[in-house]
Design goal:
This protein is of the alpha/beta class. The chain has two domains: 7-166, Alpha-Beta Complex (Lambda Exonuclease, Chain A); 168-212. Helix content is 46%, strand content 22%. The protein has seven helices and seven strands. The chain has helices spanning 9-17, 19-26, 35-48, 104-120, 144-163, 181-184, 186-211, and strands at 7-8, 53-55, 58-68, 73-83, 89-95, 126-131, 136-141. Strands 1, 2, 3, 4, 5, 6 and 7 form a seven-stranded mixed sheet that branches. Bound molecules: iron/sulfur cluster (SF4). Iron/sulfur cluster (SF4) binds next to α2 and α6.
């Protein structure tokens, strides 16, 4: 790989949520905390700071730093469970909310599995996401389909960050939960676009009338 800039794992999640949000955070270094992100940060800090321990043949490693130059990724994993007998690794990601319809959380977990595979040279077939709101742990298969989807998000994120361009805002329902809402102001940008569209129509009309 020629590009040596390692992409933080969090950028994939931001890209999958909104490419504009990803560019604002990772290229323009814009960040704003809201209630949801603050809660998420607290949860990750609590998990990451736990000490490693072993129970019933499993070693629990917390706050595991990973770097995968071939994939071009770097980041920190909340928890990796290692089967002491076989060395098989099982990444566990902690999330504040509950399971969602989209694949954003799955993509993040799969990217973690891919990093572990590159670093350790072994197969990671499963992982899990633990949701704080439902207090439930969901096992996830790192399937071929999920791997392909994740690789294409990695590629798209890399292209976006290398382009240095920030996509224009477009208001959607998800914007209401976005921590950058105030800074991005998607409704205003949207209105501005409508206004210039209307102005363009008026200009066209008045040009046609002077031509008559
Ligand atoms: S407010 Fe909407 S358009 Fe703007 S960064 Fe957030 S999700 Fe993207």
């Amino acid at each position: 790989m020629q590009d040596t800039r390692l992409i933080p794992l969090s950028a994939l999640q931001h890209y999958a949520f909104c490419p504009r949000q990803c560019a604002l955070i990772h290229n323009e270094q814009v960040w704003s905390e809201n209630f949801l992100t603050a809660q998420g940060q607290q949860l990750h800090q609590r998990v990451d700071h736990g000490l490693p321990e072993s129970r019933k043949g499993i070693r629990y490693e917390r706050g595991v730093e990973v770097s995968a130059p071939s994939l071009g990724l770097t980041g920190k994993l909340d928890l990796v469970e290692v089967d002491i007998a076989t060395g098989v690794c099982f990444p566990v990601e902690y999330k504040r909310g509950k399971p969602k319809q989209d694949h954003i959380d799955l993509i993040q977990l799969c990217a973690q599995a891919l990093c572990l595979e590159e670093m350790l040279g072994l197969n990671v077939s499963h992982g899990a996401i633990w949701y704080w709101q439902t207090r439930h742990r969901h096992q996830v298969e790192i399937s071929e389909t999920l791997r392909e989807e994740t690789l294409s998000i990695i590629e798209a994120t890399r292209n976006l960050l290398n382009s240095g361009k920030t996509p224009k805002a477009k208001y959607e329902k998800k914007c209401d939960a976005c921590s950058l809402y105030e800074l991005c102001n998607p409704k205003l940008t949207f209105r501005d676009k409508s206004r210039s569209y209307v102005q363009a129509i008026y200009q066209e009309r008045s040009f046609e009338e002077t031509e008559k």
